[in-house]
Amino acid sequence: MPPEFDIIEQLAARQPVRRAAVATGIGDDAAVLDIPAGQQLIVSTDTLNSGVHFPADTAAQDVGYKSLAVNLSDLAAMGAQPLAANLSLSLPRHDRRWVRDFAAGFFALAEQHNVQLTGGDTVRGALSVSVTVLGVTPQGAALHRRGGNVGDAIYVSGTLGDAAAALLHRNGDLSLNDAQRRRLYARLNRPRARLALGVALRGVASSCIDVSDGLTADLGHLLEADGLGATIDAERLPLSAAYREIFDRAGGWQPPLSGGDDYELCFTVAAAKAAALPDEVDGAPLTRVGIIEAQPGIRLNLPDGTVEQASAGGYEHFR
Ligand code: ADP
Ligand code: MG
Questions:
Q1: Measured from the CA of 25, which atom of ligand 1 is nearest?
Q2: Separation of CA 136 and ligand 1 centre (Å)
Q3: Nearest C-alpha to atom 15 of ligand 1 is from which residue?
Q4: For residues 300 and 302, what is the distance between their CA atoms, to the nearest angstrom?
Q5: Which of 66, 77, 94, 277 is the most exposed place for a label (fewest CB within 10 A)?
Q6: pLDDT tens digits for 238-254?
Q7: Facing residues of 119 across strands?
């Protein structure tokens, strides 16, 4: 069998078609899916390039897991439930073991969220993984970046800064003990897509975004969508136990504010709806970190009483 078809077969064999919505899966010129009546299709694509989005020595399992997780995170931010995914793989050579390990990570997460792989493309080139996810929401229920209002409270799920700390360690800028390394790298390599939270926020959040490029950068996008600004209380930023242990050495507030790769949700809630918000969803605490204001820009209340203008920060390609 030519390598290309061997790879496709290796992937297709991992997951029989189980979802009723998938009328035609892998093997035809395109997939055919039924969209449930009264629902809207939510579509998103994210690409991970070796050396840019993940260190070149990242385990294939983690690449597989993360390539789907970052896409599911976009669906979570829209309040969508996943249905299916397409996978475009660019591989430098035919390596069955790499594909097997990649698939182990990818399908572990796909099975967890009932995501059917419905197609893709397989080509030779620099290592790159591009995933397109398809999800659904009830008509008109999707969350958006726009929609926040002055006075809405700003929340984030989970904890911030852990993935950034793992990257600092990887680059030799931070020493960690074994327990810290395990916990922080798990956040970098196996981000949790907050899908249950996204669904719970339908009709509750006024706006929502996932934090992939850093809180100030992504909150900045959310606020720009409405021409508004915000003040964030640094002391309210949710930090993991592992991050608290290394807070000073890791750079204090910088990683939780501007470090990427957390894949938590940042969302806004009007005061009248704040009571409807649970304290946590799926084990992820929801923390109020600030408030939307009319004045554009993000201001940061620091523990010493000073107020700083937060820089846009965040990772930018082509810079
Ligand atoms: P075509 O030449 O018509 O694009 P391909 O040979 O590229 O067909 O693909 C054959 C089938 O395998 C299609 O259903 C396609 O969606 C699927 N496929 C190809 N690569 C992948 C992949 N990496 N993951 C999942 N399905 C794939
Ligand atoms: Mg093709």
A1: 14
A2: 23
A3: 119
A4: 6
A5: 94
A6: 999 999 999 999 999 99
A7: 86
